[in-house]
Design goal:
This protein is mainly β. The protein is built from two helices and 54 strands. The chain has three domains: 288 residues, no CATH class; 211 residues; 44 residues, no CATH class.
Length: 628
């Protein structure tokens, strides 16, 4: 649905406006009250520090050594052979032609140069580095086209990888390499994998890339995988969070993937700085009647079938459906995901490390994500977006974290999702954000009872079109700047704004449009004037709504939905000022600003923010539509 929202200021400044969703409650809890007190502000501030520390740990990552001279001068030329060629010493080896496999046996640092090489092993690993201290460099000669393929199983009947290096692997050069594994991973590295400058095309029955950590710069990586595209997992014996492993760092990478698992998965950190990313993940749904067959938890059955597709439902709605109507995903298939670390203790019990600096940090880049599961998801950690251009479509959440989701810049367009931007804390200081959601547009929620959720908007240009709550916080909503336009639901079960501990508007431009049933207005603790209009009669969809002071238009926007409630706050509203709201050519109301919250209309008012608790709309009274 196209957006048409325009704000006209007195000085002929045009600004887009936005709407905020939250629950009315006069007992607003200001996030600043918690600074230093173990509550909302302190935790979110700490999360910012964590993000800065993680970024600094990658700032000195140097790829220059692998971008230097990649010539084959002085190399040992290896003659083509149908047998497996074994390397037991360090040195430089030139491969050109067809080979039956390459095996690196010793703890050495061999350098392989491929110049039109084809390595095929139909019954095992094509390139096999058996020693844990091996440090292998694979250079793709300029203009060369190379191929590595494997299939079959090993002597124990186990599936095997096309490339399997038990030490570390670096791939560089300006040539191209195609790696295919019909049985397992295309590239498996037990330690660090570094990719620079080259072009890779990877096809795998399992992961395309699996390593202890993955770093890549100035390269092209194209993936078709039966599980994850890029997978970075900590060592099985790692029992505490560390940024030394389990990370994915991508700088100016061109990455395209089609996977049945996650597009990019890391146990600890995903850090992306530049490049372009086209990520498509496709999951397989199975009915709850097959839960035991696939080992899926009961809580994971959160979809119902709708025609030829599937629709996400809220967890508390699941009891409305019988078992055969509920579906779950066979495996995770998120676009970009971070951990946590998992291991087995001495008794064989599964342990998950939830404490640490888990982070997804996106500085810049162009992202097109079409995912069955969440598009960008940080488990037990933080999500930071400071730039980039995003186009996102997902059956589940678009941007979500367990702790802080912070957006400071970039352009984000979410064309389809269950919830748009979610976190224990959500903070938006900049950027252009456009969300279309089947449930909440922006949501602050946490299962951690120590978290006092908040949504803070201090900048940015935000547009929300939601069927659930437009902006919803289990704690507080505070707006100090930016522009927020929310078109909430058309039925009364949800609202444009919803906050359990109150909504405060101290600045910025706010438009919130929705039905009457659950209308919630900002608190009288707000510092900027708010007008809250409501009427029993429905205003038709595609009606142009205008706020004027009689001599000039202050705000005008086209509502794409039917509505009964309109909440507007902007700096142009002044105490004692007289204003009118029009719907099309018809005057809806004529009012004078008499306090921080001015309630007008024919429904008896939107509430009594900051006033008598027993009055209409107060905590003990009735809200429009007759609901307490």
């Amino acid at each position: 649905m196209k957006r048409l929202v325009m704000v006209i200021l007195a000085l002929a400044l045009t600004l887009s406006l936005f709407v905020l969703s939250g629950c009315f409650n006069d007992d607003f809890v200001n996030p600043g009250d918690f600074l230093g007190g173990g509550g909302t502000g302190e935790i979110a501030e700490s999360a910012d520090d964590v993000t800065d520390e993680v970024k600094s740990s990658f700032s000195d990552k140097d790829f220059s050594e692998l971008s230097g001279d990649t010539s084959a001068e002085g190399a040992i030329t290896v003659s083509p052979t149908n047998s497996v060629y074994t390397i037991s010493d360090s040195g430089t080896y030139l491969f050109s032609g067809t080979y039956g496999g390459i095996k690196i046996e010793a703890n050495q640092t061999p350098h392989l140069i491929f110049d039109g090489a084809t390595v095929t092993n139909n019954n095992g690993i094509a390139i096999d580095g058996t020693a844990k201290k091996t440090s292998l460099t694979l250079t793709l000669a300029e203009g060369s086209v190379n191929q590595i393929t494997n299939g079959g199983t090993d002597e124990n009947g186990d599936s095997v990888n096309a490339i399997h290096i038990k030490g570390s692997l670096s791939i560089n050069g300006s040539g191209t390499l195609t790696v295919s594994s019909e049985s397992k991973n295309a590239v498996k590295v037990s330690k660090e994998l570094v990719i620079v400058d080259c072009s890779l095309t990877l096809t795998a029955a399992n992961h395309a890339i699996s390593a202890l950590s993955v770093s890549a710069a100035n390269c092209n990586v194209n993936v078709l995988a039966g599980k994850d595209g890029i997978n970075a997992e900590c060592d099985d014996e790692t029992t505490a969070f560390t940024t030394d492993e389990g990370y994915v760092y991508l700088k100016d990478v061109h990455y395209s993937c089609q996977t049945e698992g996650d597009g990019i998965q890391a146990d600890t950190v995903v850090y992306i700085d530049g490049g372009d990313y086209d990520i498509e993940t496709t999951g397989t749904f199975v009915p709850k009647t097959q839960m035991s067959q696939y080992g899926i938890d009961a809580d994971d059955f959160k979809y119902v079938k709708s025609g030829n597709t599937y629709q996400r439902i809220a967890s508390d709605e699941a009891n409305r459906y019988n078992t055969s109507q509920l579906y779950g995903l066979v495996q995770g298939c998120k676009g970009i995901k971070v951990g946590e670390i998992e291991y087995e203790d001495e008794n064989g019990n599964a342990v998950t490390v939830t404490e640490g600096d888990y982070s997804i940090i996106i500085e810049s880049g162009t992202f097109t994500i079409d995912s069955t599961d969440d598009a960008v998801h940080a488990n037990s950690g933080n999500l930071s977006v400071s730039g980039g251009n995003f186009t996102v479509s997902t059956f589940d959440d678009a941007f979500t974290s367990d702790v802080l989701t912070k957006i400071t810049g970039g352009t984000i367009t979410v064309t389809k999702c269950y919830e748009g931007v979610e976190g224990g804390y959500v903070e938006i200081t900049g950027g252009t954000i456009n969300i279309t959601a089947s449930d909440d547009g922006i949501n602050a929620a946490s299962d951690d009872t120590q978290v006092v959720e908040h949504i803070i908007i201090s900048g940015g240009d935000i547009y929300v079109n939601a069927e659930g709550d437009g902006v919803d916080s289990n704690g507080t909503i505070n707006m100090t700047g930016g522009a927020l336009t929310v078109f909430g639901p058309t039925s009364g079960g949800n609202a444009a704004l919803d906050a359990d501990k109150g909504i405060v508007i101290d600045g910025g431009y706010l438009i919130a449009v929705g039905p009457l049933g659950m209308v919630e207005t900002p608190s009288a603790n707000s510092k900027q004037y708010v007008v809250s209009f409501a009427r029993n009669q429905t205003i038709a969809a595609n009606t142009n709504i205008t706020l004027t002071d009689g001599s000039k238009t202050i705000v005008t926007f086209l509502s794409p939905k039917t509505c009964q409630s309109i909440i507007i706050s902007c700096p142009e509203l002044t105490s004692g000022g007289n204003y009118k709201i029009y719907g099309g050519d018809s005057e809806l109301c004529d009012f004078t600003v008499s306090g921080i919250i001015t309630s007008v209309g024919s429904s008896g008012g939107i509430g009594n923010p900051g006033g008598n608790p027993s009055g209409p709309g107060g905590p003990g009274g009735q809200r429009p539509g007759g609901r307490p």
